[in-house]
Amino acid sequence: MAVKKTAVLLMNVGTPDEPKVSSVRRYLFQFLNDQRVIDIPWLLQKILVNLIIVPFRAPKSTKLYQQLWTKEGSPLVVFANSVQEKLEERLPKGDKVFVAMRYGNPSLKVALKQIKEGGFERIILLPLFPQYASSSTGTAVEAFWSAVRKWNVIPDVQVISQFYDRPDFIKAFAERIREQKPEEYDHVIFSYHGLPLRHLDKSHPGISNTTCTCHEGMPAHGTFCYKAACYATSRKLADELGLKPGDYTVSFQSRLSDKWIKPFTDKLLEEQAKQGVKKLLVAAPSFVADCLETRVEIGIDYKRFFTGNGGETLTMVESLNDHPLWIDALEAMVKEKMN
User: Fold this and answer.
1) C-alpha distances in angstroms, 138 versus 214, 224, 231?
2) Residue 204 marked in a binding site
3) In CATH terms, are 6-163+324-338 and 180-316 the same topology?
4) Which fold has domain 180-316?
5) For residue range 274-329, what is the model confidence (pLDDT) as tens digits?
6) pTM, full prediction
7) Residue 221 labelled as part of a binding site
8) The domain 6-163+324-338 is classified under which CATH number: 3.30.1950.10, 3.30.450.20, 2.40.50.100, 3.40.50.1400?
9) Residue 141 contacts by C-beta under 8 Å, 6 or more apart in sequence?
10) What is the C-alpha separation between 306 and 255, in angstroms, rounded?
């Protein structure tokens, strides 16, 4: 049986090209005008995003990106390039790994042009989001097919839509947590990126998020429910780390309104501090690379907020980034699709 020449396409959300208002504004325009991100009527979305949100948010977001930026650039891109190189070294000769952001650079358009010109017979699309959500994995897959469907020759395409329940992913993330010695902390928080509640209801029509019991166990309708996957991720990590139910709490960060998934991480931090908790360890298992939400929101803002409310120490667990165990997990995912 002939071996197919394979292109592996890793996709993430994206980042501005530089921490300047013009660049951040351009990035936010792309990101927030996506109908899967802000799923409201088209005209209302355009008015809200382009005339209100972006003009006011861009200068504030720029200051945050300036805190995130390193000498090498955006951590999201730096680690993506490192993962690309390390993963490609483990693949058969002739197979290539490409990196693309849903918004910004490195662009999906350029990556797909290189794949098309490379004459690859198979594409393995791997959006780097452990838990499926329409506004992350969904939009990445949609953007991919929007371009590829126009090709004259469409190669074999295989998509890895989520991987939160893979033992190798859990092992890799648990190792990152273990490096921080969780037994030395009063409590562990698994903080996930938040989503509007209406996004959850769309993932399982007819079943309201208000009656779902996914915090207790994976329901039959939870296959593509983001909240259910987040709680399942936490249970698996807890099992791997030997944490008891009272040792950890699941929460959600980065909310834009009160109608997002609860509990909110900042509210939880306040409660923990008032209850006398002094040392918190916070991991963010919905991110595979450090970014604004981990290094700035958790590592700086939440740390300041927690200590300001009476806590003593808040430590952020570094993400998978280019950790060897993460490369192991990616290699296994890709080779399973190859075989």
Assistant:
1) 21, 10, 20
2) no
3) yes
4) Rossmann fold (3.40.50)
5) 999 999 999 999 999 999 999 999 999 999 999 999 999 999 999 999 999 999 99
6) 0.96
7) no
8) 3.40.50.1400
9) 125, 127, 159, 161
10) 18
